[in-house]
TrEMBL record:
<dbReference type="GO" id="GO:0006302">
    <property type="term" value="P:double-strand break repair"/>
</dbReference>
<dbReference type="InterPro" id="IPR006935">
    <property type="entry name" value="Helicase/UvrB_N"/>
</dbReference>
<feature type="domain" description="Helicase/UvrB N-terminal">
    <location>
        <begin position="104"/>
        <end position="165"/>
    </location>
</feature>
<keyword id="KW-0378">Hydrolase</keyword>
<dbReference type="GO" id="GO:0006270">
    <property type="term" value="P:DNA replication initiation"/>
</dbReference>
<dbReference type="GO" id="GO:0003677">
    <property type="term" value="F:DNA binding"/>
</dbReference>
<dbReference type="Pfam" id="PF04851">
    <property type="entry name" value="ResIII"/>
</dbReference>
<keyword id="KW-0067">ATP-binding</keyword>
<dbReference type="GO" id="GO:0006310">
    <property type="term" value="P:DNA recombination"/>
</dbReference>
<keyword id="KW-0347">Helicase</keyword>
<dbReference type="InterPro" id="IPR027417">
    <property type="entry name" value="P-loop_NTPase"/>
</dbReference>
<keyword id="KW-0238">DNA-binding</keyword>
<keyword id="KW-0547">Nucleotide-binding</keyword>
<dbReference type="GO" id="GO:0016787">
    <property type="term" value="F:hydrolase activity"/>
</dbReference>
<protein>
    <submittedName>
        <fullName>DEAD/DEAH box helicase family protein</fullName>
    </submittedName>
</protein>
<dbReference type="GO" id="GO:0043138">
    <property type="term" value="F:3'-5' DNA helicase activity"/>
</dbReference>
<dbReference type="GO" id="GO:0005524">
    <property type="term" value="F:ATP binding"/>
</dbReference>
Amino acid sequence: MEKTLNLLMGRQVSSPQLQALGVALDSTEFKQRPAVIIKKGRLFCQRCGFQAPRTDYALPDKSYYCPACLAWGRLTTTMSLYSIPEANDFKKYSQDLLEKKPRLSLWQKKAAKELLQTVKRKQERLLWAVTGAGKTEMLFEALNFALLNQQRVCLATPRVDVCNELYPRLC
């Protein structure tokens, strides 16, 4: 049971999903919140972020559902989502992780500064440029800031060579 609860950390699941896993809702570890809410006449799904006029997704019992979540199991305004907060027990770094600062052009420096500001504001950003434009090098200052502040980082790349380049510099 504890192994199942550990797998649920940081995830949002509905009561039918918990029942399917054999997990009882009487655990005090769970945080509960409404699955779908209505704000200013609009439907807002708290699992996937879907938003739309509520009238488009009404059910006969006068509740509303999220059409974007149907593949994961229907959520309605009468349901709750349950989660177990993640421990976020990240390594604490005491010094700058960048052994050497990458040499950047003027435009790369501008993009790197914007990326750093995005991380500081805890926002999302897509860095899109042609192959060989130096995207990897532009990321390092923002990565350094995030890791020094014990923030979670997800860096997605479709190329293995980028992973091989990053690994020794981040570990």
